Amino acid sequence: MSTSIVTSEIAEPYAQALLSLAQSNGSVEPVAQSTAELLELLKQSDELSAFLGNPLIEGETKKGVLQQVLGENPNPNLKNFLLLLVDRGRISLLTPILKQFQALVRELNQTVLAEITSAVELTEQQRETIRRKVKSLTSAQQVELETRIDPDLLGGVIIQVGSQVIDASLRGQLRRIGVQLSATAR
After folding, report:
1. Are 88 and 125 members of one domain?
2. Which residues form a coiled coil (predicted)?
3. Burial 98-124 (b: 16+ CB within 10 A, else e)
4. What does pTM read for this prediction?
5. What is the distance between the alpha carbons of residues 108 and 102, in angstroms, rounded to a whole number?
6. Which domain holds residue 44?
7. Section 16-40 average pLDDT
């Protein structure tokens, strides 16, 4: 079995458990917000990710660091959940678990995630246009955007919603023209 399959099989039940806990306390949105902030922190800090994933570091040390990372007024559901992950030896899977949790929350809220890759930073008006377009394509209630900048695109955007990809980039258009030209040259 591949590592990603094993990881997803482990992450899914933990993400489900966190969602159930948040739903039972009526705190889905605050927990979702806290998980988004924690994921962003893990994305920005390779040291924190490596620290939490290191099996040689004791659980109590990891718990202390998590307490510091969460701050003075952490979400109690998330805090207890993270401490449970340390106790169960699953804290190294924190990122996949939190991403799976976010996917479950999006599903619950009828929200789709649109991953946008652009050559330059998008304006708020461009983001709103993309949101409306994705809403009409997917019939979703809400659209969450995750943006990434890739200067190699030259211009335009690539929008990915699930397995569907819309390539409206200049690089993509040039590639399609090249394929058409080589097909007609035969």
Report:
1. no
2. 113-140
3. bebbbbbbbeeeebbbbebbbbeebee
4. 0.72
5. 10
6. 3-107
7. 90
Instruction: Check if the beta carbon of residue 164 is closer than 8 Å to that of residue 128.
Output: no
* Digit-coded pLDDT (tens) for 87-129: 999 999 999 999 999 989 988 888 888 898 988 888 999 899 9
**Residue holding tokens 């992450």?**
11
49-60, pLDDT tens digit by residue?
A: 899 889 898 999
Q: List the structure tokens of 59.
A: 């659980």
Q: Indicate the pairing of strand 142-149 with strand 111-118.
A: parallel
